[in-house]
Amino acid sequence: MITVYVLLSLKDNATYVGMASDASKRLKEHNHGKNRYTKGHIPWKIIYTEQHPDWASARIREKYLKSTAGKNWLNKQDGISGSLPA
What we know:
By secondary structure, this protein is of the alpha+beta class. The chain has one domain (2-67). It is 38% helix and 27% strand. It has 4 helices and 3 strands, in the order E-E-H-H-E-H-H. Strands 2-1-3 form a 3-stranded antiparallel β-sheet. Strand 1 and strand 2 form a beta hairpin. It starts with a strand and ends in an 11-residue tail after the last helix. This is GIY-YIG nuclease family protein.
């Protein structure tokens, strides 16, 4: 299973959408500065996850969540509403 995840920066409320086979391990990598974009926004927390059976379907969902429509959808989800920047 592949996890599509959304991170929220505790520093400046930036968001990041990604996918990984091990989301917990990937979060540690983000928080240790191993990614160019996320390095400047440490620390991060996971605010949303979804499981997908393969990389192809996970990539489609990741691309959607990065779109304006996907960001709007995320803002409407319970537990996330109010967490994401406008």
